[in-house]
Design brief:
The complex is a heterodimer of chains A (about 260) and B (about 600). Chain A is an all-alpha fold and about 260 residues long. Chain A contains 8 helices and 2 strands. Chain B has about 600 residues and is mostly helical. Classes of the chains: A mainly alpha (about 260), B mainly alpha (about 600).
Amino acid sequence: MAATITPIDSERDRKRRLEDHDHGSGRRPPNDKNDKRTGGGDDGDNWNNRPQGRRGPREKLGRYRLAIFFALAGDLMFFIAIVSAFFVSQASGRYDAYNNYINQWLPTTVPPILWLNTATLIISSATIEIARRRMFQETHAMEEWLGIGKPTSKRAIPWLTATIVLGLLFLTGQWLAWNQLHLQRVFMRTNPSSHFFFLITGVHAVHLFLGIAALMAALIGLYRSRQLENRQILVDCSAWYWHSMGIFWLFLFTLLAFFQ
Amino acid sequence: MTPQPGTPISNPSAIIPKRARRVFTTDHHTIGIQYLILALVSVIIGTTLSLHMRIHLSWPQLNIERILPGSYLAIMTVHGTIMLFFVLTTAPQSGFGNLILPAQIGARRMALPLINALSFWLTALALVILCSSAFTDAGSPLSGWTAYPPLSAVASAGPGQGLGLDLWLFSIAIFGIAATMSSINTLVTIIRFRCEGMTWDRLPLTVWGWFTAALLSILAFSVLLAALVLLFCDRHAGTSFFIPTGNLVNGVIHSTSHPGNGSPLLWLHLFWFFGHPEVYIAILPGMGLTSMILANFSRRRVFAYRTMITTTLLIGLLGILVWGHHMFVAGLSPFATSAFSISSIAIAIPASAKVISWLATTWRSRPHYTTPMLFALGFVSLFITGGLTGPILAQPILDQYLHNTFFVVAHFHLIMAMSGIFGLFAATYYWFPLITATTTKPGRLMSEALGRWHFWTTLIGAYATFIPMHLTGLAGEPRHYSQLAGIPNAAGQLIANLRPLNSFITHAAIFLACAQIFFLVNLVKSLKNGAVAPQNPWHATTLEWHPSLATNSTVAASNEKIAVYRSPCEYMGPEPESFLTQWDTDSPIHSNRE
């Protein structure tokens, strides 16, 4: 904190070339090792106390990451609300005219294909993580910064595509699971438990669908966007979203499979 | 690609016509003004609806526009929804948040401009969808802004409960998504875009208000969205999340097609988990602004600045733990009622700390009674008056009697609606130079004479309207009744006795609405012909008046470094000219540190 009370002038100079669309945070190598002075605890050591636009090549990325984490925190609340409704409904019965306690909750047996789907989603999390890390591999990022092709994107594209395919596989698997239940005459309206089965898998599928849209946007971005930084942001943010949807699914699946 | 600070947005949008570019802009200043215009339109609609209700209650024989009991409830629903969401949530949080927040933390723009623009247009879409419900065959929904099931879950429960309520659901869902996006933008801006030297304890209290309100929005609107999804499924997918067994509506049992024993109480929990924080989302920015304005015109530091930061966060935290106090008459377990009662009364502690700070800041300071100062003092006054009934209603045993009476209406209109609106008026008068300034035109001040007329008439109107409602409520006048005449028996006699007082309330409400003509005239006049504002007209210390951050600054896009060297509110005595702004370097404190 001490560093911020008396800012040093040399630190504050922003070398911006506005006519060139340079806002001062780019135009340095995408390599934050040279300039990383974090972790010491002395004056001037704290990266965040440095002026905006001078906090290293990952400043813009950090901003978008923060945004996606806030969004995911909200999303977590969305699922928490639904899960708490699940437990409330499960526990709520009534007394009929003859004083019998009636609880209409009949546990829905999870179709076995969901185990396969879960495995698919876990693998897709691994593939998107590989793609994400390839965007940040330092030698390739440096090559790209020097103008030698787009090696990071080239090496990330196959993994990103694989994630999209796996995601689509997962959604198809979910659709098959719904069909299997329908064949067993279990529909959304059948029973309080089936309400929640279809609701939870449904809203999660909507989230995954949005995730696939984000991945596709990232894929298009890898081809179209000329700035490495923007491509990194696209892949990175959709990867964090994808991971979170995977973790959410693990919780929701555990709930559906073992807590009926 | 996001537009960079200072770079005129030229290249990517060259194909888009100039006028469309000005409307669909990502510039935070324009978006802020768009939000304020949206709120102004909404508040005019909302006020008109409330006058309809009052006139119908007092003089049912006039029967304006043939108000049936159903349409009375529809008017009430749209009034509540518009005022809560589109006025009290958007104007302080997104409107002034966009206009003022970046400059107050020393930034030249918001962090996520595209998200920002998208969230405004989604909000506008939500308003259009909500209003369109009035033009469907059966009209707007009847179930209030709280949409309690099982009536809201069954389309045959009333005229507007079919398509009308579906439109309401869509509107609020879209609004919630937009509000969440806007809050994410606010949070990222505050966390990442503070200029050098802007440490957390140097942030103006307005920024703390926006910050806390944004945190609450993210938590609350997500839960509301989940509740809306469940309600939608109950209406269209044959589920029974909220529909109990044997649900009898209009002589038809509705649970045969819905298995299971859903719980309307579950909706109440989910809704009020959103609904109570929503109240604080509306009021927290106003609280922060009140602190800053009182300090500025008293030429004093804010009393106990750090405590004020703490109380802001504490009110936010307690605000998400008290939702049950809206449900005392809904059949909660007595243990839950006690817990919610205790946490609700606990809010009195940070709230009183705030009031003490406001009083201590102004105490014997010989304030300059400008219009913004008057409205800030009005905020304090209304906050105390409305707040004092809070601990009364937070006691389950008293709430049992008062909950469905006008006492509650009086309580929340004073503390939330009137305080909130006074905060908005204070903000408008205070920041008008920044609202009106463009790079080519100077900022203008609003007329002080008209402003004073506006303040005193509004204050009198507000108290005259809402104080007597406490009395009618205590006497037993129920809420949500479209007609108070013609009730048989002793209850009818009781209500009939209240008719003179009710007629007075209606007159006062009309007076209160007419008082706003001063404001509208002032607004229109000052936009073109107001006195040209100097650089820092109120001799304020915060960064929004920094010469190169102010909106009319031609050097706004310059390379000038923005840095902060001190806390806000460093005034050196009562003379308006002697003060140190946050960006002043020549100070004893600074040289000591060197």
